[in-house]
Amino acid sequence: MQQAAADEKNAQLREVIEFVLEEAARQGATQAAADASINQGLGVTARLGEVETVEYQRDRGLGVTVYFGHRKGSASTADLGTRAVRETVEKACTIARYTAEDPYSGLVDPEALARDIPDLDLDHPWSLAPEEAIELAKRCEAAGLAVDSRVTNSEGASVNTHRHIGVYGNSLGFLAGSAGTSHSISCSLIAQQGDGMQRDYWYSSARDSADLDSPESIGRRAGERAVARLGSRKLTTRKAPIAYSPDMARGLFRHFIGAIRGASQYRKASFLLNAAGQEIFPTFLQMQERPHILKGLASAPFDGEGAATHDRDLVRDGVLQGYVLGSYSARKLGLKTTGNAGGIHNLIVAAPGKALDMDSFFTRMNTGLLVTEMMGQGVNGVTGDYSRGASGFWVENGVIAYPVHEITIAGNLKQMYRDIVALGNDVDVRGGIRTGSVLIGEMTIAGN
């Protein structure tokens, strides 16, 4: 039944896109593109055994882009009725007639369009009634609160399910739809010992609800993490090795992707400007983009312009192989699109044959800081200067000694990338960047 409903919605959205393209041509546009979607979802939060929020979301959207030569205009609407769609196309055309010429604007090159659309198994609707979601959230929180008598309070446990059905088409003859789901369970708990209080969390996310961790295991993990942080100390200012847990390490590589995006390159606003072909990381480190992983949280058969996505080596033996480009930035740089309009698709960070189990990882570290939470946004994408608040655990002789908080770690991303000395085999697959723990040889810790 759900599949039949999805097929019907897909057909409706295709009709909307076809109408947009016909109307744009009638109004004189030389090229046009449109993206229509229907989104629906349910989110609930329970706190201390009581329902705190129940939110149901259902919305529609249409984005229209037209070109009059190299003049571009865009408009959007949440109304998919014929009159509203026609008015949206008219607004986009009006805007385009008054914008300046941009020789780099236009649709993606036809040869880059996706011709074969693979089924990536992304659509797994979760028939979850609000009452069932509430029960899952309560079970999750209860398991966390039962971990230890010192877990005294809660910021709540949440259960979320979301489904997106979208169709993209353009005047080059491309018209394709996709459907995808995302589900998550999370819990945030507070532990107290004397006057000291510490908060921590855990979560699970997946395309298919059957792949989620159990609510109880998520709650217990959140409770254990909160208790482990009790008795946190401050550190004196020093230099030491820094290890990032996998969920924190994702941020390191997110800054890297931001620096090699086409927009950062052509605007000359990147600490990795013109870095293609240069050794950015140690030679043992590899990065691949794998957009066609079945059920992958960042998988996509085509990008936001209809360009085919494909496997590529982004970093090989530490050397940057190329940039992350949509068609506009590619033209600005005199290059070809890499199928990344809208972002990266499943970045895999690996050290084949050299990723360490966690005992070996901490032995390699010996003494230093394990970062498990970060605060603030102190990263300069132009210079690479990096300074962020952090908390985690101090490690001595390869063993976690005690928790630490209220510190700042600082360095420069370009140097930090070169100073990566090890990757862990504890790969986190809960996002679009898949990496294990990362160990950096030395950074500055600002404390007391």
Question: What is the strand and helix layout of this fold?
Answer:
Layout: H1 2-26, E1 31-47, E2 50-68, E3 71-77, H2 82-98, H3 130-145, E4 151-170, E5 175-193, E6 196-206, H4 215-228, E7 238-244, H5 246-260, H6 262-266, E8 286-289, E9 312-316, E10 319-320, H7 327-333, E11 347-350, H8 358-365, E12 368-375, E13 385-396, E14 399-412, H9 413-418, E15 420-423, E16 433-434, E17 438-446
Parallel strand pairs: 7-12, 11-16
Antiparallel strand pairs: 1-2, 1-4, 2-3, 4-5, 5-6, 7-17, 8-9, 8-11, 9-10, 12-13, 13-14, 14-17, 15-17
Task: Offer a concise description of the structure.
With 448 residues, the chain is of the alpha+beta class. The protein has helices at 2-26, 82-98, 130-145, 215-228, 246-260, 262-266, 327-333, 358-365, 413-418, and strands at residues 31-47, 50-68, 71-77, 151-170, 175-193, 196-206, 238-244, 286-289, 312-316, 319-320, 347-350, 368-375, 385-396, 399-412, 420-423, 433-434, 438-446.
Fold and architecture overview:
The chain has helices spanning 2-26, 82-98, 130-145, 215-228, 246-260, 262-266, 327-333, 358-365, 413-418, and strands at residues 31-47, 50-68, 71-77, 151-170, 175-193, 196-206, 238-244, 286-289, 312-316, 319-320, 347-350, 368-375, 385-396, 399-412, 420-423, 433-434, 438-446. Helix 1 (2-26) packs across helix 2. Strand 4 (151-170) and strand 5 form a beta hairpin. It has two domains: 2-228, PmbA/TldD fold (2-Layer Sandwich), CATH 3.30.2290.10; 238-446, no CATH class. 25% of the residues lie in helices and 37% in strands. The longest helix has 25 residues, at 2-26. The protein is an alpha+beta fold and 448 residues long. The chain contains nine helices and 17 strands. It is globular. The strands form three sheets. It has a six-stranded antiparallel sheet with strand order 3-2-1-4-5-6. It has a five-stranded mixed barrel with strand order 7-12-13-14-17. A five-stranded mixed sheet has the order 10-9-8-11-16, covered by helices on one side.
